Every structure is written in structure tokens, then in C-alpha cells.
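Review form for a predicted model. The reviewer records the input and the model, then writes brief findings.
Reviewer: anonymous (R2)
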Amino acid sequence: MRTAAIVLACAALVAVVVIGLSQAGSQGGEPKKGRTPTGAAAQAALRGSPPQLAALHRQAGQLLGGGEAAFTARRKTLRDFPLVVNGWASWCGPCRFEFPFFQSQAIKQGRRVAFLGLDVTDNASDARRFLRQFPQPYPSYTDTRGTIMQSLVPSSGLPNTVFFDAKGKQTFVHQGGYPSEARLAADIRRYALGG
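Model under review:
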């Protein structure tokens, strides 16, 4: 009886590992380079942004500290704009998969929608390396213990995307990775822009 229970437990563990690896393979590869303008092309696309959004663009790809106080203060400066906050980590397969979608949408919508990243429970050097490899046109705040994300989304796991309207009201939380840029764009229209 005991041997059968051990065999059954081992089989269940193997099944969990196989399912996890197959899901990571379907949504966990490296983001594809070259789809979205970066550097000078991204700056040109975002030229003429309102001052609060231009300040975000000047910090493109940076990993900022300061904890919850700094993140909250930045959110307050963006109260007149819809805001999309993406919680990510360099070790998170689905986060890596959806990263190009955020990069592209932040360039397309970045003159009227604010974007911020939250690098959650990540190693800072790994996160900086990842941001150099796949730059975003907005900054990310470090959330070493996950407390900032927990204050927005009372659950564990990544990725999470939190939407706020222009009055600063949280309107929606998308838990899990986005399967396509079109789905992210639809949520931005619906939950950030209200249309």
C-alpha cells in the first residue's frame, strides 16, 4: 500500500513537471528582437508627449529604486493619464513572452497612456541585463519583496497587469501573461482609455 502511494506521488510530480515545462515552452521563450522600434526610433515616435509622460520616456529602460513610496509618488504625478502597470521578472517565462507586447504598445500609446513596470522578486543585475537586451520606453521600479505588487494585486504569481483610469482609479487586473499584443491593446482601450 505504501509503495503504491509513493509510486502515485512520483507519477503526479512527473506530470506536474512535464505540464510546467510544456507551458513554459509555449509561453516562455526569449522575446523576439526587432519587432518594435527602440532607441532613436522609439524616441521619435514618442516626441511631443505631455511633460509627465515625457519624464517616463527619459527614464526608458531604467530600473528605479525607492520602494513603495517612490512608486506611489510617481503614480500621483500621472493622475491625469490612464496608467498601465506591468509586474514582471527576468526569470518569469510568460513575462518574457509578453514583454515585446508592452514595448510595442508603450510606443504606440505612450503619448496618451502612462506605462510603468514593477520588477518583482528579481535579481537586480539579471533585471538590468534583461532591460538592456529588451528595452522598454518606460522605467520599472524594483519590488524586491513583492510588496508593491501585493498592494495592487492580492495574489502571488507573475505576470500581472494593473490598469488605472485617468483619475487614478484601478479599473482592472489581468493575471497571467498576455497571449498576443492584440489582447493587450484591447485591454488598454477598454480599461485604461475607457472605450
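Findings: Helices lie at 2-27, 40-46, 51-58, 67-77, 93-109, 124-133, 147-152, 181-192.
Further findings: Residues 3-31 have pLDDT under 50 and may be disordered.
Recommendation: see findings above.
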